[in-house]
Specification:
mainly alpha, Zincin-like, 11 helices, 2 domains, 284 residues
Length: 284
């Protein structure tokens, strides 16, 4: 399965290589190799990288069988994504629940977002659930997962692929590309699951989440409430979201500074009732 995903990714990426005329002169070395001024990762490539990352995560976690709540999560998430800087991605946004008591969420490049049952249990209303999803959507919009890929890997990949879209690759080149892309997936998974994002990335995701929440009609203050709930669950040996570089306390302080700019929205009671109805079914 792992090899199939990697090969699919390789085929997709090779198929996305631009023609010589589409690459700036500054990005071309002698012959057909691409220099370190190489083009950014294209949306199609981001999609296949994200799918491979998602497949790797699903190798460690089982999806929760809860169709109704999964639909509810997707409707909430799609609403927030629509009010972000990137309302649509190449493969679209998809939200799924992982059957784990671990308190965590993963934003795969391209738009696939996983949220654990433990993280859902942390939310006490729809606004808090929306705040969790908004934060993860921000990581996708900011391409934080892709940022984990070592630049040397992408440079090496483009050097091997060159600038000709229709060319034959030697077995050695195919093997080299497979290793490069496999390493790229490892980089992203390590960032999402093990090391966490940087302090700057977390602060930026929180700030964008406030914007998305306000734009989609949710109470931005819900993000502070979620972080407080998270702080109460944090332990010195915690993993996942507890391994992020800024402390939860620092994130709460940053969010609190910005909340003076946001007005509390209406219809909170309606959303809370909707959340309770869905959650009661989900938690049975």
């Amino acid at each position: 399965m792992k090899n199939l995903v990697t090969i699919t990714l390789l085929v997709a990426l090779v198929g996305c290589v631009p023609t010589l005329s589409s690459i700036p002169d500054t990005a071309i070395k002698v012959g057909t190799s691409v220099s370190k001024a190489a083009r950014p990762i294209a949306p199609e490539e981001e999609y296949y990288i994200g799918r491979s990352v998602a497949a790797r995560i699903m190798g460690s976690y089982k999806l929760l069988n809860s169709p109704e709540f999964t639909t509810y999560i997707n409707l909430t998430g799609q609403t927030i994504a629509f009010h972000s800087e990137m309302p649509f991605t190449y493969g679209g946004y998809h939200f799924a629940i992982l059957d784990s008591k671990e308190i965590n969420a993963f934003a795969c490049p391209g738009g696939i977002i996983f949220i654990t049952k433990g993280m859902i249990d942390l939310a006490v209303n729809e606004d808090e659930l929306a705040a969790i999803l908004a934060h993860e959507i921000a990581h996708i919009n900011h391409k934080d997962g892709l940022g984990a890929i070592k630049s040397s890997r992408w440079t090496e990949a483009l050097t091997v692929m060159g600038s000709e879209a229709a060319r034959q690759y030697t077995p050695g080149e195919v093997s080299q590309l497979l290793n490069v892309f496999e390493g790229s997936i490892d980089d992203v998974v390590k960032s999402l699951v093990t090391s966490g994002y940087s302090k700057a990335q977390e602060y930026a995701a929180d700030e964008s989440a406030l914007v998305y929440l306000r734009a989609s009609g949710y109470n931005p203050a819900a993000l502070k409430d979620v972080l407080k709930n998270l702080q109460s669950k944090s332990t010195p040996t915690g993993g996942g979201v507890f391994k992020t570089h800024p402390s939860t306390e620092d994130r709460i302080a940053k969010v609190n500074e910005r909340l003076t700019e946001y007005r509390v929205t209406d219809f909170f009671k309606i959303r809370s009732k909707r959340f309770s109805e869905h959650y009661n079914v989900f938690s049975r």
